[in-house]
From TrEMBL:
Keywords from the UniProt entry: Cell outer membrane, Membrane, Receptor
Pfam families attached to this UniProt entry: Plug
Keyword Aminoacyl-tRNA synthetase: no
Protein name as it appears in the record: TonB-dependent receptor plug domain-containing protein
Keyword Disulfide bond: no
Cellular-component GO terms for this entry: cell outer membrane
Cross-referenced InterPro entries: Beta-barrel_TonB_sf, Plug_dom, Plug_dom_sf
TonB-dependent receptor plug domain location: 132-207
Compartment(s): Cell outer membrane
Amino acid sequence: MNIESVNAQVIQKEKQPLISILKVLESRYNIKFSYVDAFIKDKKATLPSEGLTLEVALEALRTETRLDFQLLDKRFVAIKKTNSERNSFKVQELEEVVINNYLTTGITKLNDGSVTIKPEAFGILPGLIEPDVLQTIQSLPGVLSSDETVSNINVRGGTHDQNLLLWDGIKMYQSGHFFGLISAFSPYTTKRINVFKNGTSAKYGDGISSIIDIQLPDELDRTFKAGIGFNLINADAYAKIPLSSRTELQFSTRRSVTDLILTPTYDQYFKRIFQDSDLSNSNQDSNSISKNEQFYFYDIAVKFLYDISKKDKIRFHILNVNNNLNYLEQSTINDRDEALNSMLLQENRAVGVTYTRDWSNRFSTTSQIYVSNYDLDATNFDILNNQRLIQENEVYDGSVKLDINYQPDSQFKLNGGYQFTEVGISNLEDVNNPPFRSYIRDVLRNHAIYAETGFLSLNAMTKFNLGGRLNYISKFNVFLAEPRLSFSQRFLNNFRFEILGEFKSQTTSQIIDLQNDFLGIEKRRWVLSNNKEKAITINNKEIHPVPIIKSKQLSAGIHYNKNKLLISAETYIKKVNGITTRSQGFQNQYQFINATGSYNIKGVDFLLNKQFSTTVSTWLSYSFSSNNYTFKSLNDGRSFPNNTDITHALNLAGTYTSNAFKFALGLNWHSGKPTTKPALEDDPDDNEITYADPNSSNLSDYLRVDCSATYAFNITDTVKATVGASVWNVLNKKNIINTYYTLDDENEVNQVDNESLGITPNVSFRVHF
C-alpha cells in the first residue's frame, strides 16, 4: 500500500514546490519557517489538507520530503536535514503531539495521556513570574496541593510520597526549598518535564499516583548560553558551555538571599512555613525566646555531555539540594542566661552516569547507574526541660538500568529493559532526658524487567501502547506484575478518545510520627516497607506494619480541539492498598494508632480552554472527586473521607501576551478538606480529647486570586532581559489549610489553625546572554 492511499485524508494529490507550501502554511497556522535555502531547493510535496493540526501537517511533509520539521514553539518551525542515524527517534516526538499551548505556551498534551512542560518556551501563569517546575504542574486538572507547598502535591487524591520524582532519570527524595514553598530544581537548564497521571510507560517503577520526569537537554547545543537573575527570595545563574565539538558543560546554581536581606516575600514565607513550629512557639513563651535565626538554601546542578562518536554518548549528572536552618534558643533560669543552638539540615545529593549507543537507525540502548542520597538531620534543645533531641532520616538509593529501544518502522516501537534498585533507609531518635535511643535501618533490593510495544498509525490518528513490568523483591520473595495500557483514537477530525490503565506498586513511603518531628517544620520521614499487615513483636520491640503499597487505576477521556477551542473531560477510578495511618497525617483520634488500610477515589477532571488569536488564552478547569479510606480495625470498618478529599476544585484563569509583555490573572477555589472536631459530649476531666466521627466535618472553602506580569527587552543585540512582578493571594484571603486540637495545662481544648500564605508580592529581573 503506497503512502498516498494511506494518507488520503492528510495530503492532497498535486505536488508543488515546497517553498510555496511553506508560505501557505505560514499564513494558515500563523507560524514562521526557518531553513537554509539549499535544504528545500528542488523539493516538492503535496499541500496538507485544511483542518489538520499543525503537527499532523508537518509529519506529512516530513514523510514526503525526508526533511526534519522541528516545532520550536507556537510560532517558529525549524527545517533541517534528517540525521539518518537518529531519524526514527526524532520523528516520534512530533507524531505524539495532540494539543500545543495547553493552558499556556510551553505546555503540551500528548496522545499517550501525558503532559509535557518546556520551561524554555513557557508563557506565563497566574502568580508565577518564573517557570517553577512543581508549581506549574499544579495548574493541571486533578493536581493540587492541599497546603500550598511543592512538597505535598496531591495527584488524584494521593499523598506526595506516592509521586515518583525523577531528575534526569535519578529518583529524588526532596522536592522543595524553603521546606516546600519553592521547587528545588532550576527551570533554566531543564529541557522538559513529563507528567503522567495514568497509563504510565512500563519503564517507570514506583510512583503509584504520578510520574514527574524532569529532563535536562541531552543533545550538544554547540552554542554558548547563559543567564543570571534574582527575585526577593533567591539569586541564580546558569550556563551551557561548549567545550569542544564533542563536549558540553551545563551548569546551574541558586542560593537564597534570605540570610542577607529581609524582604516582604521572605516575611510571608517565614510566617507560613514556621507557624506552629518550635521556632515560632518558643517566641510565645515569656521565659524562652528564639532569635538570630539563620536560614538559607541552595542548589547546584551539573551535567557534562560527551559524544564519544556519532553512535556513542556518555553523560554525567550531579545535583546537590540543600536547606539549612539554625536558631538560638535563649532562656533565663535561676537568674542565669542560657542559650543553645537548634538546627535543621535537609539535603539531597545525586550522582549519575548515562551511556547511550545507537547500534543502527532503528536500534539503540541506554544504560544508567546512579546514587541518590537524602539526609534530614535535626538537633532540638528544650532549655526549660533540660532536654536535647536528635533526629535523623537518611536514604541511600542506588540503581542500575538498561533500556532497549527498537523501532522497525515508523508505525511500531518496542521498548524493554532491566532495572536493579537497592534502597536503604535509616531513622535515628536520641533523647538525653530521659535517656532513650532508637536506630532502625532497613534495606530492600528490587529486580525489575519490563517490555512495551507501541503502535502509531501513519495518519497519527491511532496511538496504542501496551506493556508490563515484573518486579521481584528478594527480601520478601515477592513477584509483582504490573500491566500498563494507553490507547488514543482520533475521530471526526477534531475529537480524540482516550483510555488509560495501570497497576503499580512502591516500597518507600513517608510517615508522620508526631507533630513536633524535626522541630515541627519538616514532619515527614522516609521509611521502607516491611511487607507486614499487622504489628509484630521481636525482642520485646513492637514492629509497626508497613505493607507494600499497590494501586490500580483506570480512566477514560474525550477531547475536542478545533479553532483554538479545547474541551476535555476525563473520568477515573483508582484503588490503593497498603497505606498506613502513620503515613496519612492524622491529627485526631487516629494520630497514634498504627493500622493498615486502603483508599478509593472516583473523579472527573474537566477543562475548557479557549485561545483568542495569539494574544489571549483563557481556561476553566474543574475537578470533582470522592476519596474515602477503609481501615478494617478503625471506625468499625466503615469508610470515611480521606484527609486529602477535596471534593470540588476549580481554576479560572486568563493570560494576555502582546509582543514582549505578558500578563496573567487567575482564581483558585476548592472546597475545604476534611477535619475532625471534638465531640459535643467530650468529658473535660478525662485528660484526653473525645472526637466526633473521623473527618465528619470540613474546613472552610479555600479561595485565592493571583496575578503576574513580565516584560522582555533587549539590552544589546545579544543580551536580553526580563523584568517581572507577581502577587500571590491578591485579596489577602485568610485561608485555613489545617486545623487540629490540643489540651492545655488547664485541661481545656484549644483549636490550632494553620493559615495559608497571605498577600505575597515578588519581583524578578533576569538577563540572558
